[in-house]
Amino acid sequence: QRSAQELIRPQLPAELIERGKCPFDPASGLTELSGHGRIHRIEHNGESVWLVTGHEEARAVLADPRMSSDRINSPRARKLISPELHAKIFPPERQAGSFIFMDAPEHTRYRRLLTGQFTVRRMRDLTPRVHEIVTAQLDAMIEKGPPADLVRDFALPVPSLVICELLGVDYGDREEFQHRTSKLLSLKTTIDEQIEVGTELRKFMLQLVRAKQRDPGDDLLSGLVRDTDLTEFELAGIANLLLIAGHETTANMLALGTFALLEHPGEFAKLREHPELAENAVEELLRYLSIISMGVSRHAKEDAEIGGVTIRKDETVVVSVPAVNRDESQYPDPHELRVDRPRGHHVAFGHGIHQCLGQQLARVEMVVGFTELVRRLPNLKLAVPADEVPLRTDMSIYGVHALPVKW
Ligand code: HEM
């Protein structure tokens, strides 16, 4: 059976996807391709896709209103499955509130409502809490003693706790959403499994929304319930998107980022000795690691000329985040990790109207997380050979499944 991820994202040949010998570098085919142009026509599995590897071209695609994010209702998705199956996987109540898949002006309405909740003040108020959460996780890990799995004991709980607190989700329910989120993001999950997990998650979110309606708190979801006229399904869809986007991504950055620092001891030492580099280091790790490995995809709503090619109506475009973030016309020695590299414009958070809504929050979590990690565990080491660290090559968000460490 088809994998559910295939419906919203075209398949690319293995050599453009599978990371090679170095777990931090883009697929070898991708690096090779980047040497031969900036936007490429790829034929694979009977499909034809435009693959963007150039920085300027990526920004042009992502800022272009002719490029649609509606991956659910794209001509491609509609062609792959029957209308009956499409309606079963993506019923209207499931699409409600999922603004990552919407175009303007629908998208604009949700984005405005959310920006009103992701206020600078709320993010600033959250910083001391992020500090407390990071400290508590490190205290517990240190007390238990080495070896530890940094994913289980640090990288996953920190963003999960933070997003739970922000949204007003009971952290005790984490089993309910962590497992289902991984299932949703796995490249191997079939359409049938996706329908099942999607339904369960939606039920969980609807219950949560109803609880906030009965008994609102001062969390973000209660704020949306109180201040907007969004329907229950819209609220559940938004909560779902924030919960999923809010913990898996940052968790993988924290874990893969730590792995990368451990494999580059000089950079680890720089960060340890110069904590003021933390913000810079986070931007560099975002660029260097590009955990949105599969890229971000769009389809053309009309013919569009970009980067010297004509993208025809209904054609699919994939912006390869790993390739774009290593564009040598943008970054000198792009394949080097340098925590003191001057800050540039990476596309790890996307670009244009869909640029990551949670980026400020993610930055706070990573700055505090990496700073405290290297401060508290200055002699942190891998507890297994590097080639035994299990890589998330089976997931749409790249990272490590576990990171055994000692100190
Ligand atoms: C959108 C990456 C953390 C919520 C995006 C996009 C990227 C991204 C590349 C653009 C997708 C597109 O254009 O189709 C990341 C990375 C993160 C991170 C690398 C961590 C290091 C977060 C967090 C939250 C969040 C913590 C929530 C609190 C969202 C939402 C969108 C989004 C809601 C959709 C925005 C829209 O469509 O307007 N993210 N993200 N992300 N992200 Fe993040």
UniProtKB/TrEMBL annotation:
PROSITE patterns listed in its UniProt record: CYTOCHROME_P450
InterPro entries: Cyt_P450, Cyt_P450_B, Cyt_P450_CS, Cyt_P450_sf
A GO MF label: iron ion binding
Transmembrane portions of the chain: none
Record bears the keyword Oxidoreductase: yes
Keyword Ubl conjugation part of the UniProt annotation: no
Gene3D superfamilies: Cytochrome P450
UniProt keyword terms in alphabetical order: Heme, Iron, Metal-binding, Monooxygenase, Oxidoreductase
UniProt xrefs under Pfam families: p450
Family: Belongs to the cytochrome P450 family.
Descriptive protein name: Cytochrome P450
Species whose genome carries this gene: Lentzea aerocolonigenes
